[in-house]
Design brief:
This protein has 152 residues and is of the alpha/beta class. The protein is 37% helix and 24% strand. The chain has helices at residues 3-25, 39-50, 62-72, 97-106, and strands spanning 30-34, 55-59, 82-86, 89-93, 112-115, 134-139, 145-151.
């Protein structure tokens, strides 16, 4: 390999690494409010980190968790075991990182997105090859809800 080819190859490698670092740096930090005893919440936090997010996990009481969700517009029918705040949006439950990235990219006029309950197979709730279909729901502060993404 010639010296020029080696320099070119190095530029490509470092250029790609720089691009990846820029893309990761462009993601806003996530603050997750969760119970200290919930293992699936910790697994979801790891899912976000593995997807390039910087995450601060805060262990809070059930009352504090409920208050954070209520202030963000999460209603009882959307409730799950943890609430995250990212880029001005709320994220309730086991929402896939790809759905969060899509929301941050599209910037829809919503309060946030949620995966109600704790569906088996959603991020943090993996149990072997068992999965159940679930939807990510977009919600507004005035109570409107629509399916944001379906996971089958």
């Amino acid at each position: 390999m010639t010296r020029l080819m080696m320099v070119g190859a190095a530029a490509l490698v470092f250029g790609a690494a720089g691009y990846a670092a820029q893309a990761q740096a462009a993601l806003p930090p996530v603050t997750v409010y969760k119970s200290s005893t919930c293992g699936c919440c910790s697994k979801w936090v790891e899912h976000l980190r593995a997807s390039g997010f910087s995450v601060e996990a805060r262990d809070v009481s059930d009352a504090q968790l409920e208050a954070v969700g209520a202030q963000a517009g999460v209603t009882g029918d959307l409730d799950s075991c943890h609430t995250a705040l990212v880029g001005g949006y709320a994220v309730e439950g086991h929402v896939p990182a790809a759905d969060i990235k899509r929301m941050l990219s599209e910037k829809p006029a919503i309060a946030g997105i949620a995966v109600p309950g704790m569906p088996i197979g959603s991020p943090g709730m993996e149990q072997g090859s068992t999965t159940q279909p679930f939807d990510t729901i977009a919600f507004t502060k005035d109570g409107k809800k629509t399916v944001y993404a379906s996971h089958r």
